[in-house]
Amino acid sequence: MSSAVSPLAPTDVPEMPQIAGVRLATAAAGIRYKKRTDVLLAVLDPGTSVAGVFTKSKCPSAPVEWCRAKLKGGRARALVVNSGNANAFTGKTGKQSTAQTGAIAAKALGCKQDEVFLASTGVIGEPLDASKFDGVLDKLADEARPDGWMDAAQAIMTTDTFPKVATAQVKLGKAKVTINGIAKGAGMIAPDMATMLAFVFTDAPISPAALQALLKTGVEDSFNAVTIDGDTSTSDTLLAFATGDAAAYGAPKISKASDVRLKAFVKAFNGILANLAEQVARDGEGARKLIEIIVEGAVSKPSARKIAMSIANSPLVKTAVAGEDANWGRVVMAVGKAGEPANRDKLSISFNGIRVAKAGARDPSYNEKEVSAEMKKPEIQIKVSLGLGKGRDRVLTCDLTKEYVAINGDYRS
Amino acid sequence: MSSAVSPLAPTDVPEMPQIAGVRLATAAAGIRYKKRTDVLLAVLDPGTSVAGVFTKSKCPSAPVEWCRAKLKGGRARALVVNSGNANAFTGKTGKQSTAQTGAIAAKALGCKQDEVFLASTGVIGEPLDASKFDGVLDKLADEARPDGWMDAAQAIMTTDTFPKVATAQVKLGKAKVTINGIAKGAGMIAPDMATMLAFVFTDAPISPAALQALLKTGVEDSFNAVTIDGDTSTSDTLLAFATGDAAAYGAPKISKASDVRLKAFVKAFNGILANLAEQVARDGEGARKLIEIIVEGAVSKPSARKIAMSIANSPLVKTAVAGEDANWGRVVMAVGKAGEPANRDKLSISFNGIRVAKAGARDPSYNEKEVSAEMKKPEIQIKVSLGLGKGRDRVLTCDLTKEYVAINGDYRS
């Protein structure tokens, strides 16, 4: 496990305000780790709306299947997250484990099992002993308090090198509403796999259907626009909870995502998602550089996304950035292999604003020294202009370093 | 540039026989390298059939565009290959350079430009000065001899750690015909990109159309089933040449790929392609282990191929193999992210024949020590049984090591 904090970690960590209707508690249940918390319970006021998006993996974990089924009810009273064991690829025992955890949580909270949401991250293929939650969740339900957001972010970490939190306050009608988010990113320990978990909470009174629509749209340019290594976890989970408590201090009840009164809220909500997603990229295994890839002039936004992802997932581009080389040749390669419309002779490429290639060849005007100095910076922007249309997209990734290989390959030695 | 020979290099290097109608010569033209050959000329008897398959990149190199255009004629008299400069992303000068090289070669051989085939590998984005071929190709045309296959394989290397050759002899009718192949694999030097070049020669009398059909089929389970890092070069080129000289000693003239008399030939031809493709995987940058991925029980062969490629290109699977860990959890992840039909609870996975997971969970019968011993071997087979249908496929790759990152990222320091 990496211990040093990523050099790309945010330097400003916000104070996390309370959110009416949300109480938190954490515990060390000894699921896998020693001497650290590994269970988070979020207790939610009755009537809380819930929305979720999940991994596209065809082999999802048991908790993902649990959440998908429970989402139909649209209401949540509890979120239980454990780190240390992903309860993935655990066969029938995985399903039994989620059922048992759900039952324990429902009993502790005095709610329905359909109002309990679960997420697990950690080792896969090892049965998760749900009896470890017995007693623990009761105690956490008693202890849960409106503060402790940083503790919550810490309890869900695996090999993350820093806890990930984000917050925003915004007007909804005449009321001030709050949005808090926590996330864990792509870290892994033997024999784990990268998993992204994120949970967003607000006191805004938003219907489950509207919240689901907001989340589905919001994820597209945030979590879906981040890649560490192109690998997709069986457990990726993003849940949003809206307690609605702000109705008591004047916030209007929102039933449709298209409601114009939501404008400022949507912007802040998407900002929280983008902020958390960027923090995940900043904590990519072994990452030394954050890479922002902008593709413009594509025939469409989906086409720009595909090309941007092809660049972001190219080991050759990522190792070049690790080597502080503005290797536009590899960018051309990645554009070419994306399979999307591209015309070599119209292609321009710039690194941190310095154009190194234009019209199908090296840009004779660029200064190698100037580019080299830019490439030493911790944040690298690669911009590709295709010159074909108006399609534009942006994705975030990180470089591919020896440390990545060490984290993911050396753990046995 | 790596200098140590890959530990996965073949130990038996065949004696390469002559092929009637093919003469070879190499030279040090000083295109980029010092003190080594960097130009290969293959002189072919009049009437030689040619076939080719190329990179699917949307940004192909100038020589790829040249070859595609010339292929229509179906006849070849010369193949000119240079290493050190790929003549890719060189704009208009790239096209001028291929035209000039074609003209020089045609003059040296006394043939049409349409009978000259070109391939370049090396730096991209730097103009290739075709005047360097002036005089050189004349001299090579004079010197060309029927032997020197190993010299030919050496002249086209970039960061390959060993020359790649393969040969087979087989009956066509009553005549013995010969197939020789040379290849260069995925190596790179600043600021290059991986390129695969392969050239196959035979004295069998096969029409251009039949040869093209054979090549198109043969490449599917050989070169198209090999991946190093999922990145696709702008220059990948596979050309096949059939001089037809074996007609003089009794080989029947073949005009259709479906001709039953070709049966033994097709097997040997595909064997050469598979052999060369495997050597490319064995020389993957930084490779310490050859990984064979077999997917069976898929709904179709294309579905099996997609899943196998998802596993083969997963950095998490490749680093786990580098770490000598039978990490089936990451294999599940790669199956899941492929997007193809898969049922977690029917999935079985084995490493080197030892089943570690079955029916959606860890196989309780497997012996960790036994698996660990297997994982220390240089050749690792990962077999995934999906239990859905009869689709089966096989791809080759190599592990992802710190050495890969060093080769592709450290060159600036």
TrEMBL record, chains A, B:
Keywords on record: Acyltransferase, Amino-acid biosynthesis, Arginine biosynthesis, Autocatalytic cleavage, Cytoplasm, Multifunctional enzyme, Transferase
Location relative to the cell: Cytoplasm
InterPro entries in the cross-refs: Arg_biosynth_ArgJ, ArgJ-like_dom_sf, ArgJ_beta_C
Enzymatic class: transferase
EC number assigned by the record: 2.3.1.35, 2.3.1.1
Involved pathway(s): Amino-acid biosynthesis; L-arginine biosynthesis; N(2)-acetyl-L-ornithine from L-glutamate: step 1/4; Amino-acid biosynthesis; L-arginine biosynthesis; L-ornithine and N-acetyl-L-glutamate from L-glutamate and N(2)-acetyl-L-ornithine (cyclic): step 1/1
Keyword Secreted attached: no
Alphabetical list of CDD domains matching this protein: OAT
GO biological process: L-arginine biosynthetic process; ornithine biosynthetic process
Recorded GO CC terms: cytoplasm
Active site residues per record: 195 (nucleophile)
Molecular function GO terms recorded: L-glutamate N-acetyltransferase activity; L-glutamate N-acetyltransferase activity, acting on acetyl-L-ornithine as donor
Site (Involved in the stabilization of negative charge on the oxyanion by the formation of the oxyanion hole): 121-122
Pfam families in UniProt: ArgJ
Catalytic activity from the UniProt record: L-glutamate + acetyl-CoA = N-acetyl-L-glutamate + CoA + H(+); N(2)-acetyl-L-ornithine + L-glutamate = N-acetyl-L-glutamate + L-ornithine
Residue positions binding substrate: 158, 184, 195, 285, 408, 413
Record site feature (Cleavage), residues: 194-195
Keyword Calcium: no
SUPFAM superfamilies xref list: DmpA/ArgJ-like (SSF56266)
Transmembrane segments: none
The protein's role, per its UniProt record: Catalyzes two activities which are involved in the cyclic version of arginine biosynthesis: the synthesis of N-acetylglutamate from glutamate and acetyl-CoA as the acetyl donor, and of ornithine by transacetylation between N(2)-acetylornithine and glutamate.
Subunit (UniProt): Heterotetramer of two alpha and two beta chains.
Xref: PANTHER family: ARGININE BIOSYNTHESIS BIFUNCTIONAL PROTEIN ARGJ, ARGININE BIOSYNTHESIS BIFUNCTIONAL PROTEIN ARGJ, MITOCHONDRIAL
HAMAP family in alphabetical order: ArgJ
Family membership noted in the UniProt record: Belongs to the ArgJ family.
Protein name listed in UniProt: Arginine biosynthesis bifunctional protein ArgJ
Originating organism: Rhodopseudomonas faecalis
Lineage of origin: Bacteria, Pseudomonadati, Pseudomonadota, Alphaproteobacteria, Hyphomicrobiales
Gene name of the encoded protein: argJ
